[in-house]
Amino acid sequence: MKKIVLLAALFLLIFQVEAALKMPKVFADHMVLQRGQEIPVWGEADPRQWINVNFQGKRYRVRADRDGKWMLKMDAYPHGGPYTLSIDTKDDSKVFENVMMGDVWLLGGQSNMEWALKNTNNGEDSIKVADHPNIRLFEVGRNLSLEAIDDVPEAQWSVCTPETVENFSAIGYYFARRIQTDLDVPIGLLDINWGGTLSEAWTSAEALMTHEDFKERVASNQTEGPEDFSDPEVRKPNLWPTSLYFGMLEPVIPFAIKGTLWYQGESNAGRAYQYREIFPLLISDWRKQWGQGDFPFLWVQLANFRQAKEEPGDSDWAELREAQSMTLSLPNTAQAVIIDKGEANDIHPRDKWTVGERLAKAAKKVAYGMDVVYSGPTYKSMEIQDDQIRISFDHVGSGLMVKDKYGYVKGFAVAGADKQFHWVKGFQDGDQIVLETGDIADPVAVRYAWADNPDDVNLYNKEGLPANPFRTDEWQGITYGKK
User: Fold this and answer.
1) Domains in the chain, number
2) Which pLDDT score, from 0 to 100, does residue 230 have?
3) For residues 243 and 201, is the Cβ–Cβ distance under 8 A?
4) C-alpha separations of 446 from 89, 379, 382, 430, 436 in Å
């Protein structure tokens, strides 16, 4: 009889532990909640149990479903803090302290977004003065899954200090420091990235099943063993479609955010034409999954990389940059062009301060509606006049600027109908660039900075933002048809 009573008590204890109030790791002390919009709050409790959420003198109430899942949306609040968020049931409670209302930005992508502040130019100096109580950092540990999981296994919020930021995303930190300083609002950074990863690893199965190149591979996720997936020699799991969406991103959805910063594409460069479709697919997918409408999505265009070539030619990295620029057709998007900040021998350029600053300019325009120059010159049109071609631009700001003491613009190539490109001389004429075509018979196409590493580019606007690489032709590129 005693054994029966003991077993019953043990069973009851286990049941109570399993049924305790649970919250995703993204809800914790020191977190930032998104100001100015409804705030989803969710978790687990006993089935059909009532949950109370208390914040700034208001009480919200919701009942868990038959599986113990629950979610509610708190009202919109202005920026401020620190506050306390408490959640309780009749049997349990959670209290989160030092909570700020501000703007939450998601940092996504591969190694250049992941790159630690301590490993950048002047990083050590930045770390020494990185006491910013109104910047909060949330970093998700690396995790893989081919199916939905309840929560990420490793993640935490921390206040930005020299100790907490040294291994954090340098781009994210520099971006947050600029926005927090200029707008005087708390900033939260959700750092969810992994070096070397493909965009399709960060995309949901629902979205990838709509794309012909991926639907069979995604479908196979449900039929092949877990054993195969865990073997890096078989799967290279951090490259596998949906593996990081399920393993790192989905558990954070729908935590309210202001927008996303994205730095990725190097690993997709060999399939740049495909990226024209799957990059906007990712953006649309994230927006759908979050249910916040077309939130701002800002990205970094690939930097110049590899050794410069003496003659103009084809480039997969140039085609990937083109795919990124084409994605600007989506609403509330912008890109930071860093064609002048790369390093020939290092895929991880160390100047992350400039990247963060240029992303901040884009955010001020797209996310905050400020009247700022946020983009360098972009191709608008060309006019062929005898042995000259005149190029006009949008986003000239207060005017074009050529960084050359003799006034010559570099990085332009022209081709005739034979599709053979030749370097040409060019000069500035007001807000136009004039190219001298010389002996090129019947010129028809212009390319600018069309190379892995166009290391001699020198066209900017007066606000110091570099011109976006472009081409006027639509001739088939070297990554066409690659899957």
Assistant:
1) 3
2) 59
3) yes
4) 66, 10, 9, 19, 11
Q: Mean pLDDT of successive 10-residue segments in the chain (483 residues)?
A: 49 51 98 98 98 98 98 98 98 97 98 98 97 98 92 96 98 98 98 97 98 92 61 72 96 98 98 98 98 98 96 97 98 98 96 98 98 98 96 98 93 96 96 95 96 94 98 98 96
pLDDT of residue 13: 46
Whether residue 56 is found in the same domain as residue 126: no
Q: Which backbone phi and psi does 235 adopt, to 5 degrees?
A: -110, -25
Instruction: Report residue 188 as tokens.
Output: 């939260």
Give the count of beta carbons closer than 10 Å to the beta carbon of residue 196: 14
Shared domain check, 416 and 294: no
Task: Give the pLDDT confidence score for residue 235 in this predicted structure.
Answer: 64
Say if residues 208 and 241 touch (Cβ distance below 8 Å): yes
The residue length of the chain stands at 483
Phi-psi label, residue 30: left if phi above 0, alpha if psi -120 to 50, beta otherwise: left
101 and 80 Cβ atoms separated by less than 8 Å: yes
Q: What share of the chain is helix, strand, coil (3-state, %, to 5)?
A: 30, 30, 40
Tokens of 324: 């990124």
Helices (H), 39-136: 111-114, 123-128
Q: What is the CA 219 to chain-centroid distance, rounded? A: 26
Is 450 a domain residue?
A: yes
Structural domain of 60: 20-99
- pLDDT score at 3: 52
Count the Cβ atoms, other than its own, within 10 Å of residue 474. 7
For 204, 227, 231, the CA distances from 224, given in Å and listed in that order, are 18, 8, 12
Q: In the prediction, which pLDDT does 238 show?
A: 83
Same domain, 84 and 163: no
Residues 18 and 46: their CA atoms lie apart, in Å, by 9
pTM score, two decimals? Answer: 0.94
Give the pLDDT confidence of 121-180 residue by residue, as tens digits. Answer: 999 999 999 999 999 999 999 999 989 999 999 999 999 999 999 999 999 999 999 999
The pair of three-digit structure tokens given for residue 255, joined into one six-digit string: 């935590």
Q: What local confidence, expressed as pLDDT, does residue 16 receive?
A: 45
Letter string b/e over residues 87-99, b meaning 16 or more CB atoms within 10 A of that residue's CB: bbbeebebebebb
* CATH number of the domain bearing residue 253: 3.40.50.1110
Report the amino acid identity of residue 131: D
The Cα-based distances of 475 to 276, 314, 417 in angstroms read 15, 11, 11
Alpha-carbon distances of 175 from 46, 169, 298, 312, 464, rounded to whole Å: 41, 10, 12, 35, 18
User: Residue 136 in contact with residue 157, Cβ under 8 Å?
Assistant: yes
